[in-house]
Design brief:
alpha+beta; nine-stranded mixed sheet; two-stranded antiparallel sheet; elongated
Length: 239
């Protein structure tokens, strides 16, 4: 499924090509989607290309070709999601009132040394993807593994962190925080749009999000473009 921004950009490009026969410029895309920088457009274009919705035509300026459009189910899902902000930190990390554990249940969890954590969807270890901000599952985790604090779980998608021991399909246990030391592996929200799992490097006035796989590049941003959403404190894997 496309993210809201990816879907909006695809529709905008398709409409412009249909009307004029020429794909819009990056500046026009940035203005249409109300983004602060063209780097966000670059990421969206790359994501659409990787998913097979568009094709870049070589040796031609402003040359994008629509390969296919989302099916009706995808369009309806994105329409329902308008206004959605994919911020992990702003998610409701607690269970809904009807599903909230009572005091006795919480005491049993504490006595057994087990903490019940919400699984909030997938996080990219590679090209940033949308982070789901509603609970999709629950995981019981040893309290000794995660320690104190507010935690949540994200399923890892991608291979950019494999040299740090994080594989596609692993479950990352994240401690909620809005800052982390240089060198920590964090959930980072870029341009208030998309989240990714990367190693944080602070370099003067810049923030680098570093992959742990030589096939993936390190991305460098201004400090106002990156918000730390949490810090990796544990990893769970199914065999």
């Amino acid at each position: 499924m496309l993210t809201k921004k990816q879907h909006e950009l695809l529709i905008f490009i398709n409409d412009r090509i249909s009307q004029t026969g020429v794909s819009p410029s990056f500046d026009e895309m940035k203005e249409a989607l109300d983004l602060r920088s063209k780097s966000g457009i670059h990421r969206l274009i790359t994501a659409l290309e990787e998913r097979g919705f568009i094709r870049r035509l070589p040796h031609r300026a402003r040359a994008l070709e629509i390969v296919r459009m989302p099916d009706a189910a995808t369009q309806n899902a994105n329409s329902a999601a308008r206004g959605f902000q994919p911020s992990v930190v702003n998610a409701d990390f607690q269970r809904s009132r009807s599903a909230a554990p009572n005091k006795a249940a919480r005491q049993r969890e504490a006595q057994n040394g087990v903490v019940d954590l919400p699984v909030l969807g997938r996080i990219a270890a590679g090209t940033p993807i949308e982070a789901i901000q509603h609970e999709v599952d629950r995981f019981a985790a040893p309290e000794a593994l995660i320690g104190k604090g507010d935690h949540y779980v994200l399923e890892v998608q991608g291979e950019s962190m494999i040299n740090a021991g994080i594989q596609d399909g692993d479950y990352a246990v994240i401690k909620r925080c809005n800052d982390a030391e240089s060198g920590a592996i964090v959930v980072a929200l870029v341009d208030d749009e998309e989240a990714t799992l990367k190693r944080l490097r602070k370099k003067g006035a810049s923030i680098a999000l570093e992959a742990a796989n030589p096939a993936f590049e390190t991305r460098i941003y201004g400090p106002d473009r990156v918000a730390v959403q949490g810090k990796l404190v544990g990893l769970m894997r199914r065999y």
